[in-house]
Amino acid sequence: MNEPLLASRAEWISPGFEEPGWFPGNPDMPTSGWYGNPPPADGRKIVIADTDHFAPGGGDALWAWKTFLRGHHPILMDFGIIAGVKPPDPTAGGPMAFDAFEPARLAMGDTVRYAERVWLIEMQPRGDLSSTGYLLASPGVEYLALQPEAGPFTVTLEPGTYSVEWFAVNVRSSVQGEDTSAEITGPVRFQSPSPSEPSLLYLKSSGRLRL
What we know:
By secondary structure, this protein is α+β, with helices and mostly antiparallel strands. Helix content is 18%, strand content 27%.
């Protein structure tokens, strides 16, 4: 369904659902890969990943982080404010209530803050360097890795010493970890200090300077 976009002369695109015949509200259609497991950017196009195109009514913190770490630009179809800028009555409940989309709104802001901290122009989606598959990296310089589930994971590092920062995705708090070192290129095991929730790992080399 997206091949005409990918094959076009357009520099910026916004993909839709992958399956023919998809329409909002069809309970038999599977979850779009662009929502749950977006493909990594390959440099051909700038991708605006708009939930309105593949997951109307969807949008959470993990979607925003997965999209960002795969090299795309998350944009939310915010049903919580679709009736106007005045939030609906929160007591009404339901999936379209204003509060339902707050995690996605906050996560998009968090991705912007990390994008401004790293040397983003030198980073690429390198899911092959993390056991979770979600990683932006300038190998040997900086790494941003997502652990979307509980448990330890690995990041393949180049030799060097790296500062360690953890960011808890849901509670939105960061803590400094102890520096870690790699003597040879290979996987290094990490465990988030908030093991029961999704976490972001930010590694920065202490021996490499930006030019």
